[in-house]
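quick one before i forget lol
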Amino acid sequence: MTTYQGSCHCGQIAFEADGEITQLLQCNCSMCRRRGHLLWFVPMTDFRLKTPDANASTYRFNTMKIAHRFCPTCGVGPYSEATDPKGTPTAAINARCLDGLDLTTIKVIDYDGAHK
Protein backbone atom coordinates (compact mmCIF):
# COMPACT_ATOMS: atom_id res chain seq x y z
CA MET A 1 0.00 0.00 0.00
CA THR A 2 1.24 3.47 -0.89
CA THR A 3 1.00 6.52 1.35
CA TYR A 4 0.34 9.71 -0.62
CA GLN A 5 1.05 13.21 0.67
CA GLY A 6 -1.12 16.17 -0.29
CA SER A 7 -1.98 19.73 0.58
CA CYS A 8 -3.63 22.93 -0.47
CA HIS A 9 -1.45 25.48 -2.29
CA CYS A 10 -0.21 27.38 0.78
CA GLY A 11 0.18 24.31 3.05
CA GLN A 12 -2.36 25.37 5.70
CA ILE A 13 -4.11 22.06 4.96
CA ALA A 14 -1.86 19.02 4.66
CA PHE A 15 -2.82 15.36 4.72
CA GLU A 16 -1.78 11.85 3.85
CA ALA A 17 -3.80 8.93 2.54
CA ASP A 18 -3.10 5.23 2.14
CA GLY A 19 -4.15 3.16 -0.84
CA GLU A 20 -3.60 2.46 -4.50
CA ILE A 21 -4.91 4.85 -7.12
CA THR A 22 -6.25 2.79 -10.00
CA GLN A 23 -8.72 5.34 -11.34
CA LEU A 24 -10.00 8.84 -10.73
CA LEU A 25 -13.49 10.23 -11.04
CA GLN A 26 -14.20 13.40 -13.01
CA CYS A 27 -17.58 14.75 -11.97
CA ASN A 28 -19.49 17.42 -13.87
CA CYS A 29 -21.54 18.72 -10.94
CA SER A 30 -21.54 22.48 -10.42
CA MET A 31 -18.76 22.29 -7.81
CA CYS A 32 -16.35 19.75 -9.35
CA ARG A 33 -16.72 21.24 -12.84
CA ARG A 34 -15.78 24.72 -11.64
CA ARG A 35 -12.87 23.52 -9.50
CA GLY A 36 -11.49 20.94 -11.93
CA HIS A 37 -11.40 18.15 -9.35
CA LEU A 38 -10.19 14.65 -10.16
CA LEU A 39 -11.40 12.53 -7.27
CA TRP A 40 -9.87 9.55 -5.51
CA PHE A 41 -12.05 7.98 -2.81
CA VAL A 42 -10.61 6.44 0.36
CA PRO A 43 -12.20 5.40 3.66
CA MET A 44 -11.67 8.05 6.34
CA THR A 45 -9.69 5.40 8.26
CA ASP A 46 -7.02 5.69 5.51
CA PHE A 47 -7.00 9.52 5.52
CA ARG A 48 -5.08 11.60 8.06
CA LEU A 49 -4.87 15.35 8.44
CA LYS A 50 -1.38 16.54 9.30
CA THR A 51 -2.59 20.05 10.13
CA PRO A 52 -5.36 21.12 12.52
CA ASP A 53 -8.91 20.48 11.29
CA ALA A 54 -9.68 24.11 12.14
CA ASN A 55 -7.38 25.22 9.29
CA ALA A 56 -10.02 24.10 6.76
CA SER A 57 -13.33 25.77 6.06
CA THR A 58 -16.38 23.83 4.96
CA TYR A 59 -18.89 24.45 2.20
CA ARG A 60 -22.09 22.43 1.75
CA PHE A 61 -24.72 22.80 -0.95
CA ASN A 62 -27.65 20.99 -2.57
CA THR A 63 -28.33 17.91 -0.36
CA MET A 64 -25.84 19.14 2.26
CA LYS A 65 -24.41 15.59 2.57
CA ILE A 66 -20.89 16.39 1.36
CA ALA A 67 -18.55 18.61 3.40
CA HIS A 68 -16.36 20.27 0.77
CA ARG A 69 -13.23 21.27 2.69
CA PHE A 70 -11.14 24.18 1.42
CA CYS A 71 -8.41 26.52 2.56
CA PRO A 72 -9.62 30.02 3.49
CA THR A 73 -6.13 31.38 2.76
CA CYS A 74 -5.37 30.09 -0.77
CA GLY A 75 -8.86 28.86 -1.77
CA VAL A 76 -7.81 25.35 -2.83
CA GLY A 77 -10.19 22.48 -2.05
CA PRO A 78 -8.02 19.42 -1.43
CA TYR A 79 -10.69 17.02 -0.16
CA SER A 80 -14.31 16.48 0.83
CA GLU A 81 -15.92 14.32 3.48
CA ALA A 82 -19.06 12.24 3.07
CA THR A 83 -20.52 8.79 3.59
CA ASP A 84 -20.46 6.32 0.71
CA PRO A 85 -23.59 4.36 -0.30
CA LYS A 86 -22.61 1.52 2.07
CA GLY A 87 -22.45 3.94 5.03
CA THR A 88 -18.65 4.15 5.22
CA PRO A 89 -17.21 7.58 6.10
CA THR A 90 -15.16 8.52 3.04
CA ALA A 91 -12.71 11.17 1.89
CA ALA A 92 -12.97 12.36 -1.71
CA ILE A 93 -9.43 13.54 -2.36
CA ASN A 94 -8.68 15.98 -5.15
CA ALA A 95 -5.82 14.07 -6.84
CA ARG A 96 -4.53 17.37 -8.26
CA CYS A 97 -3.46 18.15 -4.67
CA LEU A 98 -1.32 15.02 -4.26
CA ASP A 99 2.46 15.41 -4.44
CA GLY A 100 4.36 13.79 -7.30
CA LEU A 101 1.38 12.09 -8.96
CA ASP A 102 1.50 11.81 -12.76
CA LEU A 103 -2.18 12.22 -13.61
CA THR A 104 -1.61 11.24 -17.25
CA THR A 105 -0.96 7.63 -16.19
CA ILE A 106 -4.28 7.12 -14.36
CA LYS A 107 -7.60 6.15 -15.92
CA VAL A 108 -10.26 8.87 -15.53
CA ILE A 109 -13.93 7.90 -15.28
CA ASP A 110 -16.56 10.53 -16.16
CA TYR A 111 -19.46 10.83 -13.72
CA ASP A 112 -22.63 12.76 -14.49
CA GLY A 113 -23.14 14.42 -11.11
CA ALA A 114 -24.97 17.32 -12.75
CA HIS A 115 -28.02 15.13 -13.33
CA LYS A 116 -28.07 13.02 -10.15
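fyi The longest strand covers residues 2-7.
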